[in-house]
Amino acid sequence: MTQANSTLTKWQAVLENPSLHDLPYKIELNERGQLLMSPVTKRHTFLQYLIAKHLEQQTSGGYALQEVSILTTKGIRVADVAWALETHFHNEPNDVFTKAPSICVEVWSNSNTQEEFLEKRGLYFAAGAIEVWECDQNGNMQFFNTKGLLEQSALVTEFPKVISTAFN
């Protein structure tokens, strides 16, 4: 069994485990098959919602999704928000993206480190993402492609650099 197939099998077991349903955590699977759980706050969820809402309003031909499972070389990682072409979404045979959506977005939490974001960014690009975006807890956006930091998204050029929140 390949590493990818092994990871997908382990992820399916996670999805089917009733004791893991309805937890207030984002669950990921590392390359050793261990669960990674991160608490999710109201602010974090609201920023996800705002980003997905903006993506829906400013794009066509795809879907803005929240909590997107992506197969990477280091297990299953979950992008807080992603945008996938309709054809990409419908061609994925699993409950996990085996090729990353075009845009993967990570929203900062208190528990995140810069090293985690650098690693996730690299994993998403290696899995096929075209852009990876980061949003800090104040709604400030950064956009990256494989060459580095962008002034603005090349895929969604009108996307705001700051997401307004009810928390500011």
Please, could you describe this protein's structure?
- With 168 residues, the chain is an alpha+beta fold.
- It has a domain of 111 residues: tt1808, chain A, CATH 3.90.1570.10.
- It contains 4 helices and 8 strands; from the N terminus they run αββαββαβαβββ.
- The strands form 2 sheets. Strands 3-4-5-6-7-8 form a 6-stranded mixed beta sheet. A two-stranded antiparallel ribbon has the order 1-2.
- The longest helix has 17 residues.
- The chain is globular, with a radius of gyration of 15 Å.
Q: What keyword list fits this structure?
A:
168 residues; alpha+beta; tt1808, chain A; 6-stranded mixed β-sheet; two-stranded antiparallel sheet
Which secondary structure elements does this structure contain, and how are they paired or packed?
Elements: H1 3-16, E1 25-29, E2 35-39, H2 42-58, E3 62-72, E4 75-85, H3 86-91, E5 103-107, H4 114-126, E6 131-135, E7 141-145, E8 148-150
Parallel strand pairs: 5-6
Antiparallel strand pairs: 1-2, 3-4, 4-5, 6-7, 7-8
In the sheet with the most strands, the strands line up as: 3-4-5-6-7-8
Helix content: 25-40%
Note the gap between the termini.
49 Å
CATH class descriptor of one domain: Alpha Beta
Largest sheet report? 6 strands, mixed
Brief digest:
The protein has 168 residues and is α+β, with helices and mostly antiparallel strands. It has helices spanning 3-16, 42-58, 86-91, 114-126; strands at 25-29, 35-39, 62-72, 75-85, 103-107, 131-135, 141-145, 148-150.
